[in-house]
Amino acid sequence: MKIQKRKAAYIWNAVLFIFGIAGLVITLLGMGIGEMFSYYTQDSNIFSMCVSGIYLLFWNKDIPGWLNRLRYAASVSLMLTFTVVVFVLGPMYGVVWYPWLFFHGANFFYHLSCPLLSFISFVLFEGGEKPAVPDTLIAIIPTLLYAVVLIIFNVINAVHGPYPFLYVHEQPVYMSIIWGITIPGIAWALAFVIRSLKGRMRGADCSM
Question: Considering its fold, how many domains does the chain have in total?
Fold first, then answer.
């Protein structure tokens, strides 16, 4: 069973890597590199693509703890993308925009396929111990870095948005503070959810 799961994990990460490249190519054809990196969606998926690429280098080798932590962080980041699209951007733009948010161009890979593939692979198939509580903080470092950098860039008018909740000059200061706490808070909550599910799957494997 463990060998089968290990093979499945490599396959899922291979698909993640390929889907990441597909999304990146589509994005590069539609926007500039500078604009691209202003989007959390792009940054989180490129991060995930790189981590899955590294994962593939460990074929028939034990996955080191640091790589498991990177996969954990990538899964949390991608699930934050999925969650924000479903519960924040969708309601903001209107439900009629959901098909575009999930199926237009790179969105199919970046908003839907990659987040779900990464989540399923990490929780169900990838080995490693259940993430420790301190690992939940490590897992949201990419989100915190993005938040700090983009808020600063918006404050100095180097970037506008690109998301409505980053429009610091168009909304009250308290709303920017609320969003600055809410989005990383969602990421941290997702880290705990994924950690719990991973622990349950580890327990199920040990009882078999």
Answer: 1
